Automatic annotation (TrEMBL):
Keywords: Cell membrane, Membrane, Transmembrane, Transmembrane helix. It is found in: Cell membrane. This is FUSC family protein. It is a multi-pass membrane protein. The lineage of its organism: Bacteria, Bacillati, Actinomycetota, Actinomycetes, Kitasatosporales. Belongs to the YccS/YhfK family. It comes from the Bacteria. InterPro entries: Memb_transporter_dom. The chain crosses the membrane at residues 32-62, 74-93, 124-143, 149-168, 370-394, 414-432, 439-457, 463-484, 491-511.
Length: 686
């Protein structure tokens, strides 16, 4: 993609407004937290101090709206504590420009590396940089700095207290995640009715698993509906694929296919009902038509062999899903032991250190983002001080909020920041010019803008920027800053800050396009391991440890596929020529590895019982898959000729499941080899 087209796509993305599910009660609660802090500060101190205090509650409120499975009060307290520390340190160094720039550079570097822990950590860490830049412009003593830091932390405490006192839809996010997982499996069943080889999108299952991780205290309190349903949905997925497969399950035409379509349609309706029950917290309600579709026909089922076994397993699993959604009867202690336990803060620290260490390499997007953020924040601060404009901190604040580890988000947010800020400043400036509100009215308008920002936070960054800009104008109007100064200066400084962020990415990029081959090799390796681990269960059915290995390999496969999808999405927006893996080759490679994973999924649908006789051919097939995947991965990384050398392993067997899986894996590896052997000359896309 050319630079011209990339910039055009960034403008379109930045100015787009998305439809999103609004949370008015949560937005009202977040705005109330800011209102409480401002009101107390106005009552006890000065408007200038109240403006400073508002930032703690404001940023803590933003933290609670981030996509995280941590308890919302914990997010608010963590954000408030981080803001307080950054503010206090900033005040200590604010009197000396060199010391403050050094502190700002180091703090920004640390905030950038926080992206190694996830997007929520990265966003909250960036907020601490912005608050440090804004609040320290108010002169004070060391004792006053402690007071400011304490009040900012108090803002986070207020937000946490309001969440505890006025909870809104407890466990709502976890319910939605689990319901979406069941709805995804239901959609998969519907697509299999018309396309027996339809792929399965695993991201909702990964989200549901992340949502299921809880602390021991949460495990004792979470609703019964959220305790075991995800595992049932996981087991239903391969059974659906096995039933629909034309070679292993029902025949492609005739009574078998009609019965398979009937079962798949009934399964979809049951899964949708389970999803609705989980989302609303009500019992599952099934229609008589759905129950009739799953019952055995009067004349007997036309299904035979593996298809009949799959139909029986599907019916049993659907009954289990309904029972789980209606609330399993399990003791609290059993619920705690069976839960995915989220690490506590002391246990989280070593994990965080290891995550950051993994990113300490020169080609890491996180490390490059941290360096860009550190340089741009420092340079923006110095530039803001040198320019003959008031509120020079607005330029580095804009750069900090715009910069992201990838190209598309950085440029789209830069456009959205400028357009939204301009709109917000014009509207708020017009109100200040023609209405001339007093300090109390300005405070009320600021809180209203903030509530609107919380409400529309997920609709687009341009809308969010407009609300924040209006909030700042009214907050400064509360302390007597002229509207014309706020509007004019901030338009120019926003433009400068956004340009700095965009220029920083262009000068020191972290392109994803050249790394696609590495991502593909990683995905191939874990796909081969998953398929091999499932096949090994047929060779060693009595070894129960292999089932755990299958689960671990499946999770690794999903993580690698998600990383691939995200990398391809970022690469498509980059103004970079491909280097050996064109967009068409990427699509073909994805189709091939999806087909390979389907072979493992069919094997998983018919895992043998512990007392089943071993299948020696499965061991040879597993070893062949491992070695072939490893050699092809190495060839892809080193840009060498790729050859699929699986041979006939697994196909010469009397077991129909293993034979079908071997056929799919062989076809997939050949397709993959063909995709990466395609001409790789760098061609600029038109």
């Amino acid at each position: 993609m050319t630079w011209q087209r990339s910039l055009r796509e960034a403008v379109r993305s930045g100015l787009s407004v998305e439809r999103a599910q609004l949370e008015p009660l949560a937005a009202l609660r977040g705005a109330a937290g800011v209102a409480v802090v401002i009101a107390l500060a106005l009552w006890l101190t000065t408007p200038a101090f109240a403006a400073s205090c508002a930032f703690g509650a404001f940023a803590a409120g933003i933290a609670t709206f981030q996509r995280s499975w941590r308890p919302r009060p914990v997010l608010a307290l963590t954000a408030g504590g981080g803001l307080a520390v950054s503010t206090f340190l900033g005040y200590l160094a604010a009197g000396r420009t060199g010391a403050f720039v050094a502190l700002l550079a180091l703090w920004s570097l640390g905030a950038g590396t926080a992206w190694a822990l996830g997007p929520t950590s990265g966003v909250v860490a960036a907020l601490t940089v912005t608050v440090m830049l804004v609040v320290v412009t108010l002169p004070t003593s060391v004792l006053g700095a402690l007071g400011h830091a304490g009040v900012i932390a108090f803002g986070g405490l207020v937000q946490a207290a309001l969440i505890v006192l006025f909870p809104i839809r407890r466990w709502g996010a976890q319910r939605d995640a689990l319901a979406e997982a069941f709805a995804t499996v239901a959609d998969y069943a519907r697509r299999l009715r018309h396309d027996p080889m339809a792929p399965f999108e695993p991201e909702p299952m990964m989200t549901a698993r992340s949502a299921a991780a809880v602390t021991p205290r949460q495990a004792r309190r979470r609703p019964a509906q959220l305790r075991g349903g995800r595992a049932v949905a996981e087991r239903i997925r391969p059974v659906l694929a096995s039933l629909a497969d034309p070679a292993l399950g029902a025949a492609s035409e005739g009574p078998e296919r009609d019965r398979a379509r009937q079962l798949l349609g009934g399964a979809a309706e049951v899964l949708d009902a389970v999803a609705h029950a989980i989302r609303t917290g009500r019992p599952v309600r099934l229609s008589s038509r759905t129950a009739a579709a799953l019952e055995e026909p009067e004349g007997g089922s036309p299904l035979t062999g593996p298809a009949r076994r799959a139909a029986g397993r599907l019916t049993a699993l659907l009954e289990e899903a309904v029972e789980e959604a209606n609330g399993p009867s399990a003791a609290d202690q059993a619920a705690v032991q069976g839960a995915l336990l989220r690490p506590t803060v002391p246990k989280l620290l070593p994990l965080a250190v290891r995550a950051v260490r993994r990113e300490m390499r020169w080609d890491s997007p996180v490390l490059r983002h941290a360096i860009r953020l550190s340089v741009v924040a420092s340079l923006g601060y110095l530039l803001g001080r040198a320019l003959p404009l008031g509120h020079g901190y607005w330029a580095p604040v804009t750069s900090t909020m715009v910069l992201r580890p990838d190209f598309s988000q950085t440029y789209a947010r830069g456009v959205a920041r400028f357009a939204g800020t301009l709109a917000g400043l014009v509207v708020a400036g017009a109100v200040m010019r023609f209405a001339a509100p007093g300090p109390l009215v300005c405070a009320g308008l600021a809180v209203c803008c903030l509530g609107l920002m919380y409400l529309l936070l997920r609709t687009g960054y341009a809308v969010t920027s407009a609300c924040i800009a209006a909030y700042v104008v009214f907050l400064l109007g509360m302390i007597g800053v002229g509207w014309h100064e706020a509007v004019t200066d901030r338009v120019l400084l926003t433009l400068i800050g956004g340009a700095l962020a965009m220029a920083a990415y262009a000068v020191f990029p972290a392109w994803e396009t050249p790394r696609l081959r590495e991502r593909l090799a990683d995905w191939l390796e874990v796909t081969g391991r998953y398929t091999a681990e499932v096949a090994a269960c047929y060779a060693h059915p009595a070894d129960r440890r292999r089932h755990r290995r299958v689960r671990e390999a499946l999770l690794d496969f999903r993580s690698a596929r998600l990383a691939w999808d995200q990398a391809v999405g970022r690469a498509r927006a980059e103004p970079v020529r491909h280097r050996g893996l064109s967009p068409r080759a990427s699509e073909l490679a994805k189709d091939a590895l999806t087909l390979m994973a389907r072979g493992g999924m069919l094997l998983e649908a018919h895992l043998p019982p512990r007392d089943a006789p071993p299948l020696p051919e499965a061991d040879a097939f597993a070893e062949a898959v491992r070695s072939t995947a490893a050699s092809m991965s190495a060839a892809i990384r080193q840009r060498e000729p790729v050859q699929a050398q699986l041979g006939s392993a697994g196909q010469r067997t009397a077991d129909p499941v293993l034979a079908r899986a071997a056929e799919l894996v062989t076809e997939a590896l050949e397709d993959l080899a063909h995709a990466v052997r395609a001409p790789s000359t760098a061609v600029r896309e038109k």
